Amino acid sequence: MNKDIHIGKLIKERFDESNLSVSEFAAALNKSRTTIYDIFSRKSMDIDLLLQISDILDYDFLGKIYELNSKYTKYGK
Questions:
Q1: Which of 21, 41, 53, 70 has the greatest number of CB atoms lying within 10 Å of its CB?
Q2: Contact indicator for 4, 72 with CB cutoff of 8 Å
Q3: Who's near 11: CB < 8 A, 6+ residues apart?
Q4: What sections of the chain are H helices per DSSP?
């Protein structure tokens, strides 16, 4: 697995494209606003949380991680 993949940054990018506010996103995850900002800064996270976020933001983060990892592995990066 490539160590350069930063899941929090990927989530933040997708979140910025959504119509959700931080408060709405936090409520959907049953987390605090502070925790949402913490999520955006995480390099890795629990798979269950990532699946919840994927559902809320309607985006396949696991697929994206696999795609990015495959590109890095394929080209020897």
A1: 53
A2: yes
A3: 39, 40, 53, 57, 61
A4: 7-17, 22-29, 33-41, 47-57, 61-74
The whole-angstrom separation of Cα 6 and Cα 61 is 11
pLDDT tens-place string over residues 4-36: 789 999 999 999 999 999 999 999 999 999 999
How far from each other are the two terminal CA atoms of the chain, in whole angstroms?
Answer: 11
Per-residue pLDDT of 34-55, as tens digits, reads 999 999 999 999 999 999 999 9
Q: Which residues, other chains included, contact 3 with Cβ-Cβ below 8 Å and sequence gap of 6+?
A: none
Tell me what the pLDDT averaged over the chain comes to.
90
| pLDDT over 90 percentage in the chain | 75
How far is Cα 19 from Cα 6, in angstroms, rounded to an integer? 22
